[in-house]
Amino acid sequence: MIFPDRYGYYRGFPPEFLALVYNSADVLLANSMSEGFGIPIIEAQACGVPVITTNATAMPELVRWGYIIDPADRVWTQMNSWQAWPSVEGIKEALEETYATW
Asked: Hey, is 29 helix, strand or coil?
């Protein structure tokens, strides 16, 4: 069993370490119901990693290399804002296309 360095998460990791983490990935799966400004989306693409994200909030504006998945459904929340349910089928198709590209 390996426990993450919780203090390291609080402090933050150096950019060189984060670049190694992104470079070890085949794809960044960044689908969420809502997102402010997805820094990991930009960081992954800067390291040459394609991104799969939901077509909601600011996420599609950040993608230059990857796939933007239309949501399965949109939900109006009690906080008077929209949230988008990611489409599992769309994620599966994007992962298959990414795999075929590699």
From this structure: strand
- pTM summary value: 0.81
Q: Which DSSP string do the residues of 35-93 spell out, in sequence order? A: -S--HHHHHHHHTT--EEEESSTTHHHH-SSEEEEPPSEEEE-TTS-EEEEPPHHHHHH
Burial classification of residue 51, based on how many CB atoms lie within 10 Å of its CB (0-12 exposed, 13-18 middle, 19 or more buried) = buried
The pLDDT tens digits for 14-46 are 889 889 999 999 999 999 888 878 899 999 999
At 82, phi and psi to the nearest 5? Answer: -90, 145
The token duo for 67 is 């796939």
